[in-house]
Specification:
alpha+beta, about 190 residues, two-stranded antiparallel ribbon, single chain
Length: about 190
């Protein structure tokens, strides 16, 4: 989005230098039409809207796909439904299967490779991190909305949805992150 805005501003700035001194609004309208500036702005606007829909669709697909794995057992180091998942293996698999982005393997690496956002900005598909092993970013889940997240919790448990307001999770909340590859960036690697 910002790339298109920069291109538009640059085009306007370079054309504006050659613009005649407009004596009245009709001259300015003619100038804008002659240079095709309105058409360029509409094109950029449509591309931004299309991109926003794509990101929203990816987030919805990601959450729906993740919900399909409810009940799969936790397995330390696990990265598939057949063997079970650990928290970061689950997140990595969901992003790879649904969005086509390959995240790092460990939760702390996933935190480092994603964009920091405020908890108030959380949207479905964002990542939420917790300090569950006396170190930052030792646990990760996928935000599903309504202050809830889906994750592979621990040995002996299964993938489930949890409420972030529960005291255990609220005390251990470490931060929220957005996978830039699903919005306007290239932090995650395309498959």
């Amino acid at each position: 989005m910002s790339r298109w805005l920069c291109i538009l501003l640059l085009a306007c700035a370079t054309t504006a230098q050659a613009a005649p001194q407009a004596a009245n609004p009709d001259d300015m309208d003619r100038f804008i039409t002659d240079k095709g500036l309105l058409t360029r702005l509409e094109d950029v606007s449509h591309k931004v809207a299309d991109r926003a829909h794509t990101v929203a669709d990816q987030a919805s697909s990601l959450v729906v796909n993740a919900m399909g794995f409810l009940g799969v057992p936790y397995k330390r180091g696990g990265s598939s439904a057949e063997t079970g998942f650990d928290c970061s293996g689950f997140v990595r698999a969901m992003y790879e299967q649904t969005v086509g982005l390959l995240l790092p393997r460990r939760a702390d690496q996933q935190a480092a490779a994603t964009q920091v956002i405020d908890k108030k900005e959380l949207q479905p598909g964002d990542l939420v991190f917790f300090n569950t092993m006396r170190r930052n970013f030792s646990h990760v889940g996928i935000y599903v909305g309504d202050n809830k997240f889906i994750h592979a919790p621990r040995s002996g448990a299964q993938i489930r949805v949890e409420d972030m307001d529960v005291a255990y999770w609220a005390r251990r909340f470490n931060g929220a992150r957005r996978v830039a590859g699903t919005a306007d960036g290239d932090t995650a690697q395309a498959k």
